[in-house]
Write a structure and sequence with these properties.
By secondary structure, the chain is of the alpha/beta class. The protein is built from five helices and 16 strands. A hairpin with a 5-residue loop joins strand 1 and strand 2. Helix 1 runs parallel beside helix 3. The relative contact order is 0.11.
Length: 225
C-alpha cells in the first residue's frame, strides 16, 4: 500500500500495520493520502491498528483516530508491544492487544502489494446491509443479495448470484476482475471505474474487467480464450 502503511485481511478482519520507526508527521501524512486515495475501499471499514514497538501517546492516537473517522474508518482495537501504546488505546476505548507474531519472510522475497495479498475464501450468503471486505482477492461461495456489498483490493469471484454492489481493485488495482455465475450487480466498480448495471440476459457465467479505460462484461467462455 505504501512504504509506511500496509493492509492485511483475513477471517478476523482488516489489520492496518504502521511503520513503528517512521517520523510521526510523515506517517500521518501518508495515512491521510492513502485514506483519501482509496476511499472506496476504506469507507465504512472497521479494523485493528498494529503499531509495532512505537510508544504512542494518547494525543497521537487521538489525532490518528480523528483522521480515520473523517474518512469513515473505525478502529476497533490496537496491537502494540509498547505498554504506553496499549494504555493510550484503553484510554480511547479501544481493545488493547499484544502484537501478533508473523513469520519472517525469506531475505530474497518481497512483500506483495496489498491488492495481491492473501486471498480469502468465504462460504455464505451476503444479505442486504452486510459488507464483506478484504484487502486481497476475494472468493465467495454463495449469493450476494441486493443491498449486500463485496469490496476487495484484488479480484472478486462469486460462485453464485451477484445482485448487490461489488468493488474490485478498490486499492487501485485496475487489472482486477469480477467473475460470477450470475452477474447482475446494482453497482459494479473496478478500481476507479464504475459500470452501469448489466441488463437482463442469459444467466451464464460472466467476467467484468477494464479495457481501454472502461469496464467491459463478457461471457466466461469468451474471456478464457
Amino acid at each position: 500500500m505504501s512504504d509506511l502503511i500496509s493492509i492485511k485481511g483475513g477471517r478476523d478482519g482488516l489489520r492496518m500495520r504502521l511503520d513503528d520507526t517512521a517520523d510521526w508527521d510523515r506517517l500521518i501524512a501518508q495515512l491521510q493520502e492513502q485514506l483519501t486515495r482509496n476511499r472506496g475501499f476504506f469507507s465504512g471499514a472497521r479494523l485493528t491498528l498494529e503499531v509495532g514497538e512505537r510508544a504512542m501517546s494518547e494525543e497521537q492516537l487521538a489525532e490518528m483516530l480523528t483522521l480515520m473517522q473523517k474518512h469513515g474508518v473505525e478502529a476497533e482495537a490496537l496491537s502494540a508491544s509498547a505498554r504506553e501504546s496499549r494504555s493510550a488505546a484503553r484510554a480511547a476505548g479501544l481493545t488493547a492487544r499484544p502484537l501478533p507474531r508473523y513469520p519472517e519472510p525469506a531475505r530474497e522475497s518481497r512483500e506483495p502489494p496489498a491488492h495481491e495479498g492473501d486471498a480469502l475464501l468465504v462460504a455464505r450468503t451476503v444479505r442486504s446491509g452486510q459488507v464483506l471486505r478484504h484487502s486481497g482477492h476475494l472468493t465467495l461461495i454463495g449469493d450476494v443479495n441486493p443491498g449486500g456489498e463485496l469490496i476487495a483490493g484484488g479480484s472478486v469471484v462469486v460462485w453464485g448470484r451477484l445482485r448487490g454492489l461489488v468493488h474490485a481493485g478498490a486499492l487501485g488495482n485496475a487489472e482486477a476482475l469480477v467473475c460470477a455465475l450470475e452477474l447482475r450487480p446494482t453497482q459494479l466498480r473496478i478500481a476507479d471505474q464504475i459500470a452501469t448495471t448489466p441488463r437482463g440476459g442469459p444467466h451464464t457465467p460472466e467476467v467484468a474487467r477494464i479495457e481501454d479505460g472502461q469496464i467491459v462484461v463478457e461471457p466466461w467462455e469468451s474471456f478464457k480464450r
